[in-house]
Write a structure and sequence with these properties.
single chain, Rossmann fold, eight-stranded mixed sheet, four-stranded antiparallel sheet, 12 helices, binds iron/sulfur cluster, binds magnesium ion, transport, ABC transporter ATP-binding protein, ABC_transporter-like_ATP-bd
């Protein structure tokens, strides 16, 4: 049994202008100790899927319109909010992009890390503080003992992200979801934070879902990749197979995108045009208006996830041609 199995998940948002279909039948699994990278531009549904797993979708207007989220075999979507909250605290945790707005500016970092131990484990303030120092050491914040009483603004962006990782790890969850955890950081700091996260994940044998728009950060840490477009998975494969030769033109475009060193979190996307409006997803293959390989059939027939190899699927009618073109 996988640690997490998302089955045919559908999420909609009701807006004044109609229903936006943010997630349209997503399936994926994550095992203990495994890293799944979920890739796509903003609006592809990668974060919304994660929020549905965590149970933190803003409802309304977000609504889970179908599917299952099986975590250690139980469907989280059927749990009461109170049970959900327990799972969220102790069994799965999330790391967000923006540590500064996720941390409380008027509480010391030690108090914020320690709070989890006093709330969930009933620890005394003194014990919780000792635990906080231990965790700050673990995420390699220098001079943890001296800095435990300092406030978030007294730390650099990279150190703040380490504090977020420490908080996420504190209760030793089985699953971590990291949503663009390094996007706001400088490139060299990005690599250090990513390496740390990957190392701790291996040590603690946690499942990790790494959400990113940047293929560059996943190469060394992910086991497999799910590429999302317009609320669907368009390619799903072991990481080395994707790098060898993408089987979907959208993945190929992501691979060919050039990271911009001068603008944090920005990149030059190799494929022209914008992702579709989720209230008006194009018929056939949703990617066809932007696809350099599109044929007539692409405008009418939705491509299923074709099996490419044992562990690989591509939602492109022309996946063979795409692989051949990359060789
Ligand atoms: Fe491009 Fe057609 Fe493949 Fe869609 S199905 S990615 S439009 S070639
Ligand atoms: Mg996002």
């Amino acid at each position: 049994m996988p640690l997490l199995e998302v089955r045919d998940l559908h999420v909609e948002f009701r807006t004044r202008d109609g229903v936006a279909k943010a997630v349209n039948g997503v399936n994926y699994t994550v095992d203990a100790g495994e890293t799944l990278a979920v890739l796509g531009e903003s609006g592809s549904g990668k974060s919304v899927t994660a929020q549905a797993i965590m149970g933190i979708l803003d409802i309304p207007p977000g609504r889970i319109a179908g599917g299952e989220v099986l975590f250690k075999g139980r469907d989280l979507l059927k749990l009461k909010e109170e049970e959900r909250r327990k799972v969220r605290g102790a069994e799965m945790a999330m790391i967000f992009q923006d540590a500064l707005s996720s941390l409380n500016p008027v509480l010391s970092v030690g108090d914020q890390i320690g709070e989890l131990f006093s709330v969930h484990r009933g620890m005394s303030r003194k014990d919780a503080k000792a635990k906080a120092v231990e965790l700050m050491d673990r995420v390699r914040i220098p001079a943890a003992k001296e800095r435990v009483g300092q406030y978030p603004h007294q730390f650099s962006g990279g150190m703040r992200q380490r504090i977020m990782i420490a908080m996420a790890l504190s209760l030793e969850p089985d699953l971590i979801i990291a949503d663009e955890p390094t996007t706001a950081l400088d490139v060299t700091v990005q690599a250090q934070v990513m390496d740390l996260l990957a190392e701790l994940q291996r040590e603690l044998n946690m499942g990790l879902i790494l959400i990113t728009h940047d293929l560059g950060v996943v190469a060394d840490v992910a086991d497999k990749i799910a590429v999302m477009y317009a609320g669907r998975i368009v390619e799903h494969a072991p990481v080395h197979e994707i790098y060898k030769a993408p089987a979907h033109p959208y993945t190929k475009g992501l691979l060919e995108s050039i990271p911009r060193l001068d603008q944090k979190g920005q990149e030059l996307f190799a494929i022209k045009g914008l992702p579709p409006n989720l209230m008006h997803i194009p018929p056939g293959c949703a990617f066809h208006p932007r696809c350099p390989m599109a044929q007539d059939v692409c405008r009418t027939d939705v491509p299923p996830l074709y099996p490419v190899s044992e562990n690989r699927r591509s939602a492109c009618h022309f996946w063979k041609e795409t692989i051949d073109a990359s060789r």
